[in-house]
Amino acid sequence: MASACAVGQDPGTENGHPTRVRTSRSALPQDRPHVPLLAAPSIRAAVPVPGPVRACSWLPGPVAAPAAIPGAGLFLLRLSLLSFLLISPSFSALASAAAPPAAKAPAAAVPEPGTEEQKQAEAEAQKKAEAEKQKKAAAEKQKKVDAEKQKKTVADIRNLGTALFSWLTDQVENTVAEQDAENGAAPPRGTAEDAQQKTIDIQDYPLISREDLEDFLVPQYLAAIPETDAWGNPYEVRLNTDNLMAKAVMSIRSPGRKGYYAGDVYKIEGFDPTDFDQDIVWVDGFFVRWPQAQESHGDKPLPIPPSGRQ
């Protein structure tokens, strides 16, 4: 059935009454979306829909399909591409957030500058300190050993000197008794100046062999004669058997730790007991060179009392 509105009538009226014209929404001009990334499509004028149009909604009959809009396919393609570009970064970000973090490879240890040199320097310093500590400990130990040896040497010389002085006393008593019987006078004696002398020359005392010394002293005055001092050096014993009343009669000495004598002339005085290389010298009943800190009487070790010599 032909539409009354479409045949012989004003499209705007029906039976003399205005009617609502139904048109396609796409036929109306509309603002295109602003797409900065794509070129804006050209705006075309609305194109009337060809064919029969049912202008009256209450009239039966077919409704013509809207005609294709020129350029619509290209616009939709551009819109699809734009949507893909906008959505793709979001998907990438979500995928990255959802993915488990990758295990980081352990970083290679980077040695600090100078670490090896510093360790070597510290090791050297520690080694040096340890060596210094051991050296000090060894020195202290050796000092104690030398002090004991010095003490023993002094004791040996004193014991041997005591035996010599006892022998000398007995000999002098016999000699004095004989001279008194013959001459009625005492033998010459040393003066007070001799007692005040400041130096001793060891060469004034004649040497005596060990065999002769043993004949004089063993066993009546001494069980055995010491051969060496505590450091292993042989004692030097001197005895003036030709003149027992002379100023210089007997002497004993040790070279100390160093093993050799410093000389033959000695100043009568003590020395630092920690100086183990000093000679230890005894003459005529007194020490003339001795470690000062050992048993002393004033400035000198106690003398052997001259029980037979007045």
Features:
310 residues, alpha+beta, five-stranded mixed beta sheet, 4 helices, 35% helix, 10% strand, disordered N terminus, disordered C terminus
Write the layout of secondary structure elements.
Blueprint: E1 13-14, E2 17-18, H1 72-98, H2 115-182, H3 192-195, E3 199-201, H4 210-217, E4 236-239, E5 250-254, E6 265-267, E7 269-271, E8 280-283, E9 286-291
Parallel strand pairs: 7-9
Antiparallel strand pairs: 1-2, 3-6, 4-5, 5-8, 8-9
Write a structural description.
- With 310 residues, the chain is an alpha+beta fold.
- It has a domain at 156-291.
- The chain has helices at residues 72-98, 115-182, 192-195, 210-217, and strands at 13-14, 17-18, 199-201, 236-239, 250-254, 265-267, 269-271, 280-283, 286-291.
- Mean pLDDT is 73; it is low at 1-11, 23-28, 37-47, 53-59, 184-192 and 304-310.
Outline:
The protein is an alpha+beta fold and 310 residues long. The protein has helices spanning 72-98, 115-182, 192-195, 210-217; strands at 13-14, 17-18, 199-201, 236-239, 250-254, 265-267, 269-271, 280-283, 286-291.
Order of strands side by side in the largest beta sheet? 4-5-8-9-7
Order of helices and strands: EEHHHEHEEEEEE
Question: Radius of gyration over alpha carbons?
Answer: 68 Å
Low-confidence stretches: 1-11, 23-28, 37-47, 53-59, 184-192, 304-310
**Shape estimate:** rod-shaped
- The number of distinct helices, counting runs of at least 4 residues, comes to 4
User: Which whole number gives the mean pLDDT?
Assistant: 73
Counted beta strands:
9
Given the helix and strand composition, which structural class is it?
alpha+beta
Largest sheet, in brief, is: 5 strands, mixed
